[in-house]
Structure formats: C-alpha cells, structure tokens
C-alpha cells in the first residue's frame, strides 16, 4: 500500500477520455555530435568519484505561471550543495520551457532561475520543449532553442543566458547517453504527442545503447519524458511508452536498473516485476516547478480503469501529488556491487524535506 494513506490506489490507470494527438509529432532534428551519441561526464566535469557520487533529477520545471514553485525547488536543491557529499549535476527530465519551448522563454524559465545552481544541468526534451506555437512569427523549427542551449558543439556563453554566466552544454543529440563512472544514463526523446512517440530508428539506437551499457558492468538508468506508468487524472499511463521500453528490453535482452520520467506533474514510485524475480523501479518526477500539480485517480473511478493486464506486476508504492519536489540519486560501489539510493524531497519554504526513499543493489 502507498505510504501516503490519502489514496489507497496500488495500480496505474488509463485515462478513458484522453485524446492521442499523434498529429502533433515533429521530425527529430539532426544530431550535434557523432553516433552513437555518448558523452563522457569527464569531458564536462572533473573529479567525479569512482566510488560514490550524487546528482539531482527533476522534470517539468518551467515557471511560466507562479514561478515561486520553481524557485522553491531550485533553492532547496541548491542548499544541498553545502552538505558533506554535494550533488555533482542535475539531469532534467524535460519541459524546461512552457508552452512552446521558445527561445524567448529560456531566460525567465531556465537561465535566471538556475543562475545560482552550482552544477551543470543535462537534459532531455519534453513535449513542451519540442512543440511549436503556430502563431509565432519567427517560425522556429522544433527544438531549435533546446538544441542551442543543450546540444551545442562547444560549451560557451549564449545570448539567451543574459548575465547569468551559465554556458551551453555539448550533448550529442536530443537522445543520448551520459557516461559516468558508476552508471550510464540513457536519455530518450519521446516527442510532442500526449502519450509520446519514439520512431523505429531511435528505438534501434536504444537497443544498441542498452547492449553497450550492459557490457560496461555499470548501472543502467533510463530517462524519458513521457511516463509509461501513472495513476494521475491528467495523463494516465502511456501504452506507447510501455511498448517501446519493454520491446527494447526484450530485443536487447537487457533490463535497466531504474527508469525515470516526467510529464505528469507529481511524484510516483512504482515497482515493476520482470521474470527471474527482477524488480525495476519506475519513478515519475514531474513536480519540479510548473504550478499545476496532477492528483491521483480515486480507486473505482470508471474514467480511470486500472484492470488492464498491462498493469499486472506493476505496483504503486508511494506518491506525492500535492507538493513540488525533486529527486536526489546517490550511486555508490561497495564490495563489488553498485548501489542506487534514491530520495524524493518536498520543497518547503525553500528547504528540502525528505518524503520518500528507495534502494537498488546491482550485482554486476
């Protein structure tokens, strides 16, 4: 049962009335780097420990309305850099800028709010980052601004950053792998439609990325914006994401150790059972700052059924749908085993309060 007793739900849901707007699909832009789109963190940061390090994770941070929520989360994250083992970087799960990812929104919604955040920020795009305002007289292409900020060919100052001093990132593509000493973080791009869309060429790249990462004997963390499993009333679960992820896992014969997503504006922690007794955490962490939060569906609500066999073996273990927050992930190596310890913090009055924690031990 969820630790949060306000809602006894234990399974994800589908939203009956949802419209799958696949017509919003946008072509994937060209890569900035070379195939297979892998970036070693040593090219960005020096001194990452091979024994233990931590990093932040959050999604859906854009503060287009009521920016105080975004500021509260950022202040709480930044305060953790004064701790004995401070985070090294942030991995953003998408929806950096609402509502259409326009260049004009990056200063107010990204560069200025994060001006005092000490670490680099890596990212995958969300649907709002990739969408295009049909009334925009500048006629941008999908992800133009995101690529300028996160997928530059070299790290440098950019006009969009104003006087903040934050430089561009050198991610090789909008889907890519961040190689760290203890884990490969595989970031997928799930496009604009409400339930996501991953084309066959990216899926095949994903399969090869899983195989390559498995051979390193490190932990494998998969990040994607659209949540495969959710129990909320705004989006619900995505059958597209379930099919792509599990299809790739089967084809590669590789399971990840952790899956994280955004899109849904709350925190949810699921556990999915796979054959041979393997359990994989699926985390929704989309409460990073956008004002509106998404509540969970009440049990028995016919508009949000949870009886699909696709949900068998998937259990909701904890959730927070009424407060903004972020994840802190700690990777450590002990006695030949890699451990992932995750903590979800609620941002309260610009300070962090621990709400939930989970652990995964990986034998490699």
Can you tell me about this structure?
- With 364 residues, the protein is α/β, with parallel strands linked by helices.
- The strands form two sheets. The chain has an eight-stranded mixed sheet with strand order 1-5-6-7-8-10-9-11, with helices on one face. A six-stranded mixed sheet has the order 4-3-2-12-13-14.
- Strand 2, helix 1 and strand 3 form a beta-alpha-beta unit.
- Helix 5 crosses helix 6.
- The two termini are 31 Å apart.
Percent strand: 25-35%
Through-space gap between termini: 31 Å
Q: Tally of extended strands? A: 14
Helix content: 10-25%
Shape: globular
State the order of secondary-structure elements, H for helix, E for strand.
Answer: EEHEHEHHEEHEHEEEEEEE
Radius of gyration: 19 Å
Largest sheet: 8 strands, mixed
Whole-number average pLDDT? 96
Number of helices: 6
- Quaternary state reads single chain
Strand order of the largest sheet: 1-5-6-7-8-10-9-11
Low-confidence spans: pLDDT under 50, at least 5 residues?
none
Indicate the structural class.
alpha/beta
Give the secondary structure arrangement, pairings included.
Elements: E1 38-40, E2 52-58, H1 68-79, E3 90-92, H2 106-111, E4 121-123, H3 127-130, H4 144-150, E5 176-179, E6 183-187, H5 200-215, E7 219-224, H6 239-252, E8 258-261, E9 267-274, E10 278-285, E11 314-320, E12 325-334, E13 337-348, E14 351-363
Parallel strand pairs: 1-5, 2-3, 3-4, 6-7, 7-8, 8-10
Antiparallel strand pairs: 2-12, 5-6, 9-10, 9-11, 12-13, 13-14
